[in-house]
Amino acid sequence: MTRQKKSRNAGDNGQRHLPAAEARKLRQPKEETKKKGAGKKSGSRNSVIEQKTEQHAGHSGPKDPRTGSKKPIALVAEPVVTPQIKPDMQPKARLMKAVQPGLSPAEELAQIENDLLLQQLLERVENNEVLTGKDAKYFNAKTARLEQLLEQLGLTEQAETIEDDDPLAQFERTDWRKSILGDED
Question: What GO biological process terms does the UniProt entry carry, in alphabetical order (predicted)?
């Protein structure tokens, strides 16, 4: 068998390349579709007059939003008329805030001392618990009022105990030799 030279031509097997003029003839034209409207039709302001006549005749269809109120507006300000109250229509009694009768300081002091909630909170404080929220507010308010009442009644001198808040002074007062060595001098 003799050797055949390869060629670059596709031969009869490949698709034939058509010139542009022939390709345009073979192409099918696109179906024309209706364009979607991007807004109102032109001249819509002029067609409002036609719609108004149709609405008055049949009273149907949506109301045009551009049509405003038909209520007449006064161009001159009218004087404001205030209704006058007849003298016999005036109220005869005056309203006043109800005043609660106050307790005497001694009665208030007794009431605070007998307060069960305050006693429970005082026990919690003595047990080194920390009060929070409403309990702390209630405790602080009642103890402050108790101190005021004691000062007002002059009972603070009897209730006071002599204690120094200075821990160094308390440390110096303590005789450590007696506690360590015993009662011997």
Answer: ribosome biogenesis
Q: How far apart are the first and last CA of the chain?
A: 141
Secondary structure letter of residue 38 according to DSSP: -
Instruction: Extract the tokens encoding 46.
Output: 């002029």
Helix axes 134-153, 116-126, angle to 10 degrees: 100
pLDDT per residue, tens digit, the chain (185 aa), is: 688 888 777 666 667 778 888 888 888 888 877 777 777 667 666 566 665 665 555 555 567 777 778 888 888 888 887 777 666 666 777 888 877 777 788 888 888 888 999 999 989 989 988 888 899 899 999 999 889 888 888 877 643 455 557 777 777 777 766 667 665 54
Q: Are 132 and 153 in contact (CB under 8 A)?
A: no
The encoded tokens of residue 182 equal 């015993």
The angle at the Cα of 59, spanning 53 to 64, to the nearest 5 degrees, equals 65
* Rounded distance between C-alpha atoms, residue 175 and residue 182, angstroms: 11
The answer to pTM > 0.85 is no
Query: Minimal CA–CA distance to 48: which of 34, 36, 61?
Result: 61
